[in-house]
Amino acid sequence: HAHLLGIEPLSQGDITAILDLAEEYVTLNRSDAKHADALVGLTQINMFFENSTRTQASFELAGKRLGADVMNMAMQASSIKKGETLIDTAMTLNAMHPDLLVVRHPQSGAVDLLAQKVRCAVLNAGDGRHEHPTQALLDALTIRRAKGRLHRLSIAICGDIAHSRVARSNIILLGKMENRVRLIGPPTLMPTGIAEFGVEVFDDMRAGLEGVDVVMMLRLQRERMDGGFIPSEREYYHRFGLDAEKLAYAKEDAIVMHPGPMNRGVEIDGEIADDINRSVIQDQVEMGVAVRMAAMDLLAQGLRARRAA
Ligand code: CP
């Protein structure tokens, strides 16, 4: 693959290859060395048109640990504010010969469009409600390490599914790896036509969590609810917030995940989020660096091979 724009085009083999290489980077990141040379001589530009803590920081660290020259574009201070279009901005950066472009954008499809206009490898760091492929890959690695496998698991994704690119990329990935996916949330926050993805849909947490191996919580994406239904936080927490009573319906050894940013007391009880026996939220963050190192390493190998041909 020339780019990483989504999980959709990836095969089971592609996913396993990224996760296997990421395992090596987990080991490296835990050592004192922390550095390898997979991206030495390459230039990585990070363009985040939407706020980020985890994704931006981990792509930056990943690039630096692999020896790339990493530049973070301060999009708030860029000429986008003066009316320059996304494509003109991309073409301008393209003229500076970057090798890897990491892009987050509020519009679904914007990163795909940009990838058609530049001569480097593009990584989607989240586009609208479309895809967030490195998030699904880091979630997959976290699950595989915690459960010892990434197939025939029962996984519940809970909350605001309709606005979530994290949910969409996870549904696609977990389906490709032959897991059973359940979606739990209010019908108003469930996308139409979702049954086509081979998932089971619930609007009751207790019924949906019954016997699952993995509980993945999502944030209410208020910024994408333009004028539509916005539930009250109190009512939402009562019905869909993960607390000890609801979690008791999942398997005894079920793990709790959250991609962040987390709103404690809205979609998840703070004590559960901090419970090191159940929550793998900090592992997800750790896996994020390793998965992004692996994804950029593999794309750079392809880039170098095409340039040498
Ligand atoms: N999970 C995730 O994408 O977090 P950020 O928005 O902080 O990058």
From TrEMBL:
Catalytic activity reported: carbamoyl phosphate + L-aspartate = N-carbamoyl-L-aspartate + phosphate + H(+)
Question: What keyword terms does UniProt attach to this protein?
Answer: Pyrimidine biosynthesis, Transferase
Residue span, Aspartate/ornithine carbamoyltransferase carbamoyl-P binding domain: 3-144
Its EC number(s): 2.1.3.2
Query: What processes in GO biological process is this protein linked to?
Result: 'de novo' pyrimidine nucleobase biosynthetic process; 'de novo' UMP biosynthetic process; amino acid metabolic process
Q: Which domain of life is it from?
A: Bacteria
Named in its record, the pathway it takes part in is:
Pyrimidine metabolism; UMP biosynthesis via de novo pathway; (S)-dihydroorotate from bicarbonate: step 2/3
Can you name a GO cellular component term?
A: cytosol
Aspartate/ornithine carbamoyltransferase Asp/Orn-binding domain boundaries:
153-298
Quote the record's binding site residues for carbamoyl phosphate.
R54, T55, R104, H132, Q135, G260, P261
What InterPro entries would the database entry show? Answer: Asp/Orn_carbamoyltranf_P-bd, Asp/Orn_carbamoylTrfase, Asp/Orn_carbamoylTrfase_sf, Asp_carbamoyltransf, Asp_carbamoyltransf_Asp/Orn-bd
Q: Name one GO molecular function term.
A: aspartate carbamoyltransferase activity
Q: Which residues bind L-aspartate?
A: K82, R165, R219
Q: What does the UniProt record say this protein does?
A: Catalyzes the condensation of carbamoyl phosphate and aspartate to form carbamoyl aspartate and inorganic phosphate, the committed step in the de novo pyrimidine nucleotide biosynthesis pathway. Reversibly catalyzes the transfer of the carbamoyl group from carbamoyl phosphate (CP) to the N(epsilon) atom of ornithine (ORN) to produce L-citrulline.
Protein family according to the UniProt entry: Belongs to the aspartate/ornithine carbamoyltransferase superfamily. ATCase family.
Q: How does it assemble?
A: Heterododecamer (2C3:3R2) of six catalytic PyrB chains organized as two trimers (C3), and six regulatory PyrI chains organized as three dimers (R2).
Q: Which PANTHER family match?
A: ASPARTATE CARBAMOYLTRANSFERASE, ORNITHINE CARBAMOYLTRANSFERASE, MITOCHONDRIAL
| The protein's name | Aspartate carbamoyltransferase
List the source organism: Roseovarius tolerans
